[in-house]
Structures are given as structure tokens and as C-alpha cells.
Amino acid sequence: MSTIDSYNPADPDDLVVSVTAVGAGGVEEAIARARVAQREWWALGAAGRSAVLGKVAAAVEAATEELAALTVREVGKPVAEARGEVARTVAIWRYYAQAPFAPSGEVHEPAAGQGLLLTRRRPYGVAGLVTPWNFPLAIPTWKAAPALAVGNAVVLKPAPEATACALRLAELAGQAGLPDGVLTVVPGGGEEGAALVAGTDVVSFTGSTAVGRQVVAAAAGRGVPVQAEMGGLNAAIVLPDADIAQAAAHLASAIAGYAGQKCTATSRVIAVGDAYEPLAEALAKALGEVAAADPGAASTVCGPVINRQALDRLTDAIDSAKAAGAKALAGGARAERDGWYLEPTLLEGVPAEHPLAGEEFFGPVAVLVAAEDLDEAIALANETRHSLSTSVHSRSLDVALAAADRLDAGMIRINAPSSGVDFHLPFGGAKAASYGGREQGRAALDFYTASRTVSVLPGGGS
Fold it and tell me: What pLDDT, in 10s, does the model give residues 214-270?
């Protein structure tokens, strides 16, 4: 058996947790236990499931400071954001604690004669969840909570870098009254993920595009419902009439917050016409004031990237872009401190064919490009297969809404950072950014249930 070791990205000598990977056999055993537990969980009824999920929310809330500190330590998330993630996690559990009482179908008139036509939604059985490290509490929760609310059991394989957070979340859920086997964490890597996809009844994945495509193919090949969120190459369009200072502040947050390690982070800034020069100056200044610093400090916005491999990939890409003629307006190098830190970086003059202009690098790096007019800006923003979130900055609501109608992204934010998610609304991207049903909100309840049509006709008795 291999070992899963999770280290502190701010202090690479700090081993947060070391556990044995469960292997494919361990995943199969967890799924078998979940099948037994799911029947009792479903039989508990709406009131019973609602009560337990409400208790989970309370348990997570009571452990706020512990969970925030663990999130800072394990994934390097700045403490202010870590507390925000815990608060969001609590809110998601509370939101879905009411979901068992939501309507589970509709009643229709028959085409002719007496009788009833019903649609009813029912759980699939066991949901297999594969989650990333960047939101180690919120993403497992926004997948698990709706799956549990509608009566599924859950087997969760977290990213190795977020193992401790996932284990503690499941432990708190169990202490709050979630029955044994209803939510199981299976530590591991690719072997465990493949076994999970091969053995569960509905699959939800968030992670890289390459792995996501494999997950989709494997699940779809079995005829199993699958959703996959595979990141985004997100653009921000800034028009000449925008409040440049406000736009620069929003962009700096979306580029450097949590070291750019959000699938909704801004990686391409498109300045339209006369907006280019003032925006370049304001954004470079704003990013220059964001230090890559200790995530445990209350004032930190940009902490470390997740590991040495990520840092090397980012710095190699920046150096390559510079060699191809790009210029760093802000940052552009490793921060001079222990740990895996990169200065928030803004580059101009990056060749269109360079990987930084067309691939998601998951770090505090953005490229600045010019567009002659809004038409060109929209064409540039749509020139990606990973359209998750796009922001538009303009004082004209008419212009912004017209742009929103023409953008391909799954989420469009006007005069706001591209980063940011409303947990009660559908979440997902366009084109290759996502596959399958949307996450979050009521859309998640539909994804984790199958629709059945029931015809009820008179029995003919007296």
C-alpha cells in the first residue's frame, strides 16, 4: 500500500498528515458498506435526513477556528479566506438541510380518461465524489450535502493535498449523527479514483481537464450519470468607461487572491481601447501592493502555491514568456521567503501562441492584452475551450448586458471579480470547462436523483 503525505505549502518541512492509501479494494469495500447504509438513510425520511444535516452544519460551525487553521496549514489558504470557506461550508449544509422537504416531482393530467400521471425523483444509491485541494471543505460539501439530502450515500476521494481536511469534515459529520457508512472518505490517488468511478451509481468530479475527460469516459461508458468541472481560462473585459480604480482592485483580487488557485481566477485581462494604459498602470500598482505572505497572517491575500511542482511550472512559464518578448509589469519571480511563494504577476506582450495565453496555470499570474473595441474583446474572451467565468467592467449597464449575451462563459460577473460563487445558484462552465449537469443550488438535487414517471389508473373494482 502506498502512503498519502500532505505537507504545509507555507512550511514544506511540516507534514500535516500521513495515511495509507486504501487501494482499489478499500474503495470497493467502502462502496459495499455505503450500499447497505444508503437503504437505512433513505428510509429515515425527509425529517430525519433534514435533522441530521442541520446538526452537521452546527458541528462544522462550532469547529470554525479549528477548521480554518487546518485549511491554512494544509493548503496554504490565507486565514481570512479560510474562515470564509468554513462559513460557506456551514451555509451549504444548512441550505441542503431543507432540501429533503423540496418537491420531488409533479402531478400531470392523463391524456384521456381517469387516473394520475406522476413524476418522482429518487436517489441513485451511492454517489462517488472526487474533489480538489483548493476548496478542501466547501467543494466536498457542495457535492456531498445535496447527494445526502436526497437520500444517497457518499464515498469521497479527496485530492491527496487536502486529505486531512476531508477526514476531519467526515469525522465531524459522524459525530453530528450521520450514520456509519453514509459518508466515507477514501484517501488515495489515481487507483482509488478509478475504482470509485468504476463502482458508484452517480459520479461528480472536480479537477484537471486531463483526468476529468478520463472520468467522463469511464462513467459514461458504464451508463452512469457524471458531471465534471475541469477549470477555466477566465477573462476580464475592461471598457474605457469603467471605473478603472475599482476594476483594478477587483482584478487584483481575482488574480492574486489565494495565489490565483481558484478555477474562477482571472488569468487574462482584456483592455478595450483607451482603457489599456490607465488599467495597466493601476493594475500593476494594485498587484505590486499584494505581497506573497504567510497565510496565517490576517492581512494576507496571496499565500503560497500548493507545492514545488506548481511553483516550478509557473516560474518556468513566466521565464519562457519573457524570453519570447513579454514584459513583467508586476511580479514575475519567486518571492524571497521559505515555502512555495510566487509574487503576483502581470505580463504584457505575451505571444498569443504561448501557453500562458491559452492554458490554465493555477497561480497568481495574468496576461494583459489589448482589444480595439468590444467586438474584438468578446472574440478574445471566447477564444478558449475553458469558458468558466468572465467579468465585464463598464459603467454602462446596457453595454455590459449586451456583452453578457455574447460571452460563452458559464458565469458572467458584471463590475465584480471573476472569482466568487453563490452557493445557492447553479455553478459550471461552457464548452470544455464542464460536462454534465450543474452543481449547487436546486440543480444539484436534480443531478443526484433519477426521474421516474408513474401512471396510476383506476383498478376497476367496485
Answer: 999 999 999 999 999 998 899 999 999 999 999 999 999 999 999 999 999 999 999
What would the CATH number be for the domain defined by 3-230+433-456?
A: 3.40.605.10
Domain boundaries, the chain: 3-230+433-456, 234-414
459, with CB counted inside 10 A (0-12, 13-18, 19+), is exposed
The active-site residue out of 192, 229, 343, 439 is: 229
229 carries an active-site annotation: yes
Instruction: Name the grid cell of 95.
Output: 441550505
Domain spanning 234-414, CATH architecture? 3-Layer(aba) Sandwich (3.40)
Identified catalytic residue from 74, 192, 263, 302: 263
Is beta strand 389-393 parallel, antiparallel or unpaired with respect to 116-123? unpaired
CA 386 to CA 341: how far, in whole Å?
26
Reported as a single tens digit per residue, the pLDDT across 97-118 is 999 999 999 999 988 888 999 9
Q: Which amino acid is located at 434 in the chain? A: S
The amino acid occupying position 13 is D
263 belongs to the catalytic site:
yes
Cα distance between residue 244 and residue 427, in whole Å = 28
